[in-house]
Write a structure and sequence with these properties.
four-stranded antiparallel β-sheet; Dna Ligase, domain 1; DNA polymerase, domain 1; 2 domains; two-stranded parallel sheet; alpha+beta; 39% helix
Length: 308
């Protein structure tokens, strides 16, 4: 079909439904498409859509674009390229590939190949999954007892588990840390962390909370006024793509279905509707927000009022 016409339809729909003007770039490679998008925004005569499928049009735009406008070419690399006589995207596309790899790295070489029409970078449908998931908070008020910290750490493990299931991964290890404030000159300084290995990869809130509390128990010491705690999930694997330990205990039966039901209910009824029994409805572990800026664009109750 006519991709340029489709691009104009997409641009008009985004403007109509979201209210944000956007540019649309069409090209055989990711880097060229991003450069086409730059051209669509730079020259209003294009109508916000630039189609670079024609090699002749590609070279015309490359000759007009400074090398610093190319996706992946930062300020420092651009300055080095300028000293080599490369000031436009077209000069980068025509430069010797082996020299680029030797002088910079393989990504700069691939960028040049992409500008010449050779696809080297894959298109991602979404952001890359995180390799670690952390849930940490500074307490609004100092905590002194193990029970208070257990409730906080259980809440953090619960929230981290929701994020973990959101990216469809399982974790094999959890780090737990607690510390006092480094700025408190009167109290006893204390900071400890520990890593707990799970018996089997899991995204079950019950497993994550149990491991987190075991780690907390190992590092807690009475006396310090604790200012911050956190839970970090690590060592991720995808379900069905790991080798289970023959001697490890079996995972909880029905865990996936149970967690899916809990996440669905919490998404519809509000976070914390179904939660571990250790967590109170109002946990009281929110951060200090006395100096929080007004949320004019995200909260109806805080809309800017103008009196005339």
């Amino acid at each position: 079909g006519d991709l340029e016409a489709l691009g104009r339809l997409m641009r008009a729909r985004v403007l109509r439904e979201v209210g944000i003007p956007v540019g649309v770039g069409i090209a055989p490679t990711k880097t060229l498409a991003k450069l086409a998008n730059w051209g669509a925004k730079k020259w209003p005569a294009t109508g916000g859509v630039v189609d670079l499928r024609d090699p002749a049009r590609q070279r015309r735009l490359l000759a007009l674009a400074e090398v610093g406008e190319v996706w992946g070419i930062g300020r420092k690399i651009s300055a080095r390229l300028n000293t080599m006589g490369v000031s436009t995207a077209l000069q980068l596309a025509d430069y010797d590939r082996k020299t680029l790899r030797r002088m910079f790295n393989v990504n700069v070489e691939r960028t040049a190949r992409e500008l010449a029409g050779e696809a080297c970078f894959a298109l991602e449908e979404g952001p890359e999954p995180k390799q670690m998931i952390a849930c940490t908070r500074s307490f609004g008020e100092r905590k002194h007892t193990l029970q208070e910290l257990q409730e906080a750490v259980a809440g953090y493990a619960t929230r981290a588990g929701e994020k973990l299931r959101g990216q469809r991964h399982l974790c094999q290890a959890i780090q737990v840390f607690i510390r006092s404030s480094p700025f408190d000159q009167r109290g006893e300084p204390y900071s400890r962390a520990t890593c707990v290995a799970l018996p089997y990869p899991s995204a079950d809130t019950r497993d994550l909370v149990a491991a987190s509390l075991a780690g907390l128990q190992a590092i807690f010491r009475p006396g310090p006024a604790y200012a911050k705690a956190g839970v970090i999930l690590m060592d991720f694997v995808e379900p069905g793509r790991f080798t289970p330990d023959l001697f490890a205990p079996a995972p909880r039966p029905g865990s996936d279905r149970l967690m899916a039901v809990i996440d669905t209910i919490n998404a519809k009824q509000g976070r914390g509707t179904i939660r571990p029994a250790r967590l109170a409805p109002d946990q009281g572990f929110s951060m200090k927000r006395e100096r929080l800026s007004a949320r004019f664009t995200t909260s109806w109750s805080e809309l800017l009022q103008v009196k005339c």
